[in-house]
Amino acid sequence: MEALLCRRLGDPASSAPDGNNPESSPIVVSRNHPIPDLDSPTAVRVKVKATSLNYANYLQILGKYQEKPPLPFIPGSDYAGTVDAVGPAVTKFKVGDRVCSFASLGSYATFIVQDQSHLFGVPKGCDLVAAAALPVAFGTSHVALVHRANLTSSQVLLVLGAAGGVGVAAVQIGKVCGAVVIAVARGAEKVQFLKSLGVDHVVDLSNQHVTASVKEFLKSRNLKGVDVLYDPVGGKLTKETMKLLNWGAQILVIGFASGEIPVIPANITLVNYSFNVAEVGGQRHVMKNWTVHGLYWGSYRTHRPAVLEDSIRELLSWVERGLITIHISHIYSLSEANHAFSAIKDRKAIGKVMIAFDDLGSARSKL
């Protein structure tokens, strides 16, 4: 089978994995990699149709992710495909069934083996490439907003990095929950795309100041502030948008795509001091009562598997009912993995970047 091997740590966007000088790339396409055997009576082997690229996959090959597998390894997490073989005790699936799932490693290959308890049936109305894009991006946003923040229709949601994979998922889930959704992105194309999703207000960082733009919108709607901040970006943008938060607001720390980890002083979550000469003593105490959530979605499989499974099942039902749409920005073949990682690295994607098998890599854009 074909498999993408990470042989050493480095930038997977640097050069082609099967180019004229393969030693220049940390990743290489293995054309005759062994097909994995069923490793238990309840194991299922899936022929992968498509697999998703997430920023975490890029960081893992760079060696900058919290989980550092021994070299060499096959990267990859969420995927979809058809059942190729089943163990003697498998009861939930049969050969030919359409399934999706995620793994800690191994989806950048023609075949992957997982236990039947980790697989989800894909509804008939859902394309397999789209299903492969769902588990990590939409799963992360769904657990964060629905299970951690308990987002309601009376609240204001602010999504940073809103045109990326988890961002597009977050704004759609916010709309399903009935919240007022504010999105932050950069560039006219991304702004227009987010508006097409029904976002209530979009801030274009290329020509707008985020605080001023959001405050003007909130005032026009007679809203006091932001109740939930969804932050996969980090850096200076986190500190800036914290100025917009309501009393009792929740901050969802998803990741640090900016490359900069922000510092959130503990006292700010309780009380903030702001200077105002018109006030007695020149000091005003603003009570905040904020909650900061750190969300590492993958750990739910170990600590709260039922939450994770219920979340993905609900998301698949939402896809089937047309409540959410999975937007694929780019599709590449395995031999073009460097271009796929470049799209992630350079913020070119609007929605998801995918690797697909069966010659689907010739389709450069699905938007």
UniProtKB/TrEMBL annotation:
- GO MF annotations, alphabetized: oxidoreductase activity; zinc ion binding
* SMART domains associated with the record: PKS_ER
Task: Name the segments for region: Disordered.
Answer: 9-34
Classification via Pfam families:
ADH_N, ADH_zinc_N
Q: Which InterPro entries match?
A: ADH-like_C, ADH-like_N, ER, GroES-like_sf, NAD(P)-bd_dom_sf, Quin_OxRdtase/zeta-crystal_CS, Zn-ADH-like_protein
Q: SUPFAM superfamilies given for it? A: GroES-like, NAD(P)-binding Rossmann-fold domains
Domain Enoyl reductase (ER), first and last residues per copy: 36-355
Q: Which domain of life is it from?
A: Eukaryota
- What's the name of the protein? GroES-like zinc-binding alcohol dehydrogenase family protein isoform 2
Species annotation:
Theobroma cacao
